[in-house]
Amino acid sequence: MSKWESLLGLAARARKVTMGEEFVLKDVRAGRAKLVILAGDAGDSTKKRVTDKCASYQVPLIEVSDRYTIGAALGKDMRVVVSVTESGFANKLKQLLS
Fold it and tell me: Ranges for the Ribosomal protein eL8/eL30/eS12/Gadd45 domain (predicted)?
């Protein structure tokens, strides 16, 4: 497991991560999302919706390999999109993923 995956897991345990497309989009609209992580194998409509919403609200978006990687980092089966709601975690994740 890589450093960013461990950090994402830690953020989730600290309850600073939102999972699921609708909840993530709600966080983006409300200004709570500091970073959105999207699976590279997400469906086209999901990808477009999340990308457009992040662009219009100026929320950083990072695409990672696949839904299983995100899921494993969070201790779940698979997750397509998650948002990080705490700026400390978000900044460190951006640093590790860039």
Answer: 3-93
